[in-house]
Amino acid sequence: MTRSARRTLQVAGAGAAALLALSACSSSDDSSSAKSDSSASASSSPKLSGTVTVFAAASLQESFTTLGKEFEKAHPGTKVTFSFGGSDSLAAGITGGAPADVFASASPKTMKIVTDKKDNATEPATFVRNQLEIATLPGNPDKVSSLKDLTKSSLKVVLCDKTVPCGAAALKALDASKLKLTPVSYEEDVKSALNKVVLKEADAAVVYKTDVKAAGSKVQGVEFPESTSAVNAYPITLLKNAKNPEAAKAFIALVQSTEGQKVLSGAGFLKP
Amino acid sequence: MTSTDTSDAAADTLQGGPRRGRVRTARRGVPLPLLLPALIGLAFLLLPLIALLLRAPWSTLPDQLTSAEVWQALRLSLVCATAATAVSLVIGVPLAWLLARADFPGRGFVRALVTLPLVLPPVVGGVALLLALGRNGVVGQWLDSWFGITLPFTTAGVVVAETFVAMPFLVISVEGTLRAADPRYEEAATTLGASRFTAFRRVTLPLIAPGIAAGAVLAWARALGEFGATITFAGNFPGRTQTMPLAVYLALQNNPEAAIALSLVLLAVSIAVLAGLRDRWMTAP
Question: Are residues B199 and B93 in the same domain?
Answer without folding.
Answer: yes
